[in-house]
Amino acid sequence: MTYCVGILTHQGLVMASDSRTNAGYDQVNLCRKMHTFVEPGERSFCILTSGSLSLTQSVITLLRDEFDAGEGLAKARNFYAAARAVGECVRRVAELDRSALERDEFNFNINLLLGGQIKGEAPQLYLIYPQGNPLSVTRDSPYMQIGEVKYGRPILDRGIEAGATTLEVAAMYALLSFDATMRSNVTVGPPIEMLLYENDALEFDRYRRFKADDPELNVIHRQWERSLRRAVEELPAITFKACLPDTP
């Protein structure tokens, strides 16, 4: 399984992904789900992927071939055009593989997050659906998730404030979102890759890869757990009545 999240703030962008493709009692497979495409000083893109590894690899390969040839993401005139270029590669892979997959009762089930910036525009963040169509974040919903999203969503809903949450604080919320997901679902796990992009940098120079035994990651996990329990203990006591109400 997979969990990826992108958060767009007034200061820049946070992109984070796990590295687990499947997990069982006797086998854990790892693979990177974060991919970058950079023309320094002109454009920087980060793509996070979820779904079938063979399909996402095909999409990234097509995008990389286009980028190296000066096409696709390399020549998109604006970020919406870049999102459309990613969607077009998704559709090309779908044309190649969808019928064979569905014949054997497999779904074409990939989703991608595209974040970054093109010179002259503000940073942006898009979700690319399996059909290739893009959806942009909004001020009211400044983050996107793909993969196993339900466990890590509540902390983001409560904590991320458009126009107020700083880049560093957003990164912490992203880590806590992963912490909640990994606590409840063994199919999501480290290493966790995290990239912070500052407005108008037009390159990626703030990156971390958190392994399972990373000291900072473990300190954050333990301190967050203690703080959460302490906060619950400090809440006002619940008042109970002496007996059950009458029932019909």
Tally of domains: 1
Write the CATH architecture name.
4-Layer Sandwich
Biggest sheet record: 5 strands, antiparallel
- What fraction, in percent, of the residue positions are helical? 25-40%
* Mean model confidence by pLDDT: 92
Calculate the terminal CA-CA distance, rounded to whole Å.
47 Å
Taken in chain order, the helices and strands follow as EEEEEEHHEEEEHHEEH
The strand count comes to: 12
Treating each run of at least 4 consecutive H or I residues as one helix, how many helices?
A: 5
Radius of gyration (CA) equals 20 Å
Q: Quick one: CATH class? A: Alpha Beta
The percentage of residues in β strands lies in 25-35%
Strand order within the widest sheet? 10-1-2-11-12
CATH topology: Glutamine Phosphoribosylpyrophosphate, subunit 1, domain 1
Low-pLDDT stretches: none
CATH superfamily grouping:
Aminohydrolase, N-terminal nucleophile (Ntn) domain
Secondary-structure-derived class: alpha+beta
Query: What general outline do the C-alpha atoms trace?
Result: globular
GO biological process, one term: proteolysis involved in protein catabolic process
Pfam families: Proteasome
GO cellular component, one term: proteasome core complex
GO molecular function, one term: peptidase activity
